[in-house]
């Protein structure tokens, strides 16, 4: 447990690199979530973001004028987000783990987590989201997925991922494997599986957004890879060796990587009235 907790807070060791190298979230995601959450307009919604990190999602939601309370436990990540606040006047930060965070009397119309839901305590996270939402409020959980277009490159990179146990396959895969819709299974940990039997959340939907293909240089791909927790927790020598192996592999394939970018989104709504009312 202590190990999982430490790993959850490993991102802050390279907060600046994380902010520079990780993808943002597409406009279509913000449009979809705001349309689902409803309200008279972004300014009319009150949102809480769980695990805001350096604010990659905070910037795209807050940039629409949405008031966002960003909850982030790692002060090093929060510090990078704090520097963005000049351009995000309706964003506030509270440095706390979600498990310790106190909404007090505040109730939100939208609670969202970008690439962070899986870091929260499984036993309590749905109860805590429920408590933070106003009746009828929306929960939105999303993750970026990076699909490697070339099957040969994918095969070679997968071999290194397996050999080093870096866990990158949770976020990368063969692009064609993402051609269908989201599969909701216990094994793949999709949020829809977890919420499915919880009658406190209605109108549940899973949406896969297809954001197109981009060509990444080996440098930019390796910079992103280095920010994933499974890579960050490696011993420095092993990490350097792993990244060097990946670079040789990419160089052998032309020095670039074509990536199909997907964003998987789960939304649900807190039952509109108190159960039993
Ligand atoms: C992969 S990062 C995602 C950051 C940001 N949301 C983004 O999209 O770039 C996961 C974030 O969850 C945070 N986190 C880890 N455990 C948490 C917890 N128990 N409560 C709230 N946030 C947590 C980490 O500090 C980190 O900033």
Condensed summary:
With 277 residues, the protein is of the alpha/beta class.
Plain-language structure description:
The protein is an alpha/beta fold. The chain has a domain at 2-146 and 178-211 and 263-270: Rossmann fold. Helices cover 35% and strands 25% of the residues. It contains eleven helices and eight strands. Strands 1, 2, 3, 4, 5, 6, 7 and 8 form an eight-stranded mixed beta sheet that branches. Strand 5, helix 7 (151-164) and strand 6 form a beta-alpha-beta unit. Helix 9 runs antiparallel to helix 11 (236-252). It is globular. The termini are far apart. The mean pLDDT is 92. The structure holds S-adenosylmethionine.
Main traits of this protein?
277 residues; alpha/beta; Rossmann fold; 8-stranded mixed beta sheet; 35% helix; binds S-adenosylmethionine
Rounded to an integer in angstroms, the radius of gyration calculated over CA atoms is: 19 Å
CATH class of the domain at 2-146 and 178-211 and 263-270: Alpha Beta
Termini Cα gap: 38 Å
Taking all residues together, what is the mean pLDDT?
A: 92
Give me the count of strands.
Answer: 8
Helix-strand layout with pairing:
Layout: H1 2-8, H2 15-21, H3 27-37, E1 47-50, H4 56-62, E2 68-71, H5 75-82, E3 91-94, E4 108-114, H6 125-132, E5 133-148, H7 151-164, E6 172-174, H8 191-196, E7 201-217, H9 218-225, H10 229-232, H11 236-252, E8 256-270
Parallel strand pairs: 1-2, 1-4, 2-3, 4-5, 5-6
Antiparallel strand pairs: 5-8, 7-8
The chain binds S-adenosylmethionine (SAM).
């Amino acid at each position: 447990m202590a190990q999982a907790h430490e790993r959850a807070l490993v991102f802050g060791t390279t907060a600046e690199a994380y902010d520079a190298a990780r993808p943002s979230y597409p406009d279509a995601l913000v449009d979809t979530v705001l349309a689902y959450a409803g309200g008279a307009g972004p300014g009319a919604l009150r949102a809480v973001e769980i695990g805001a990190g350096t604010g990659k999602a905070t910037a795209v939601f807050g940039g629409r004028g949405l008031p966002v309370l960003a909850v982030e436990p790692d002060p090093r990540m929060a510090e990078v987000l704090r520097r963005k606040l000049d351009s995000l006047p309706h964003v506030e930060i509270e440095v706390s783990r979600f498990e310790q965070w106190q909404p007090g009397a505040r109730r939100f119309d939208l609670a969202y987590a970008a690439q962070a839901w899986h870091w929260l305590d499984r036993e309590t996270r749905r109860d805590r989201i429920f408590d933070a939402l106003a009746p009828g409020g929306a929960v939105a959980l999303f993750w970026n997925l990076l699909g490697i277009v070339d099957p040969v490159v994918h095969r070679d990179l997968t071999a290194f991922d397996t050999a080093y146990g870096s866990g990158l396959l949770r976020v990368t895969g063969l692009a064609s494997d993402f051609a269908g819709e989201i599969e909701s299974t216990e094994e793949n940990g999709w949020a829809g599986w977890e919420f499915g039997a919880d009658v406190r959340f209605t109108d549940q939907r899973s949406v896969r957004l297809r954001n197109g293909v981009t060509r990444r240089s080996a440098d930019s791909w390796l910079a992103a890879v280095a920010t994933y927790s499974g890579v960050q927790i490696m011993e420095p020598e092993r990490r350097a060796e792993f990244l060097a192996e990946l670079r040789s592999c990419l160089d052998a394939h032309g020095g670039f990587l074509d990536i199909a970018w997907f964003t998987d989104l789960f939304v649900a709504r807190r039952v509109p009235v108190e159960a039993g009312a």
